[in-house]
Amino acid sequence: MRSAEAGHYQIRILDVAGRVVLSEQTNLNREENHLINLSDMKAGVYILEIAMGDRSIREKLIIK
Hints:
The protein is mainly β. The protein has one domain: Immunoglobulin-like. The protein has strands at 7-14, 20-28, 44-52, 55-63. Strands 2-1-3-4 form a 4-stranded antiparallel β-sheet, with no helix packed on it. The chain is globular and about 30 Å long.
């Protein structure tokens, strides 16, 4: 993940049933990278949710 602006980010990965399977919080500077370790995740379809303040994005995440 690469931050577009500095701030406090809440990162969550949800399974297709909506259960949180991974949750992290991090503070990032502008254009800073943050790696999320997915090596323990089972293959499948997930939702990646990234929130900062009152804004959030959700993207489909496929792990093979």
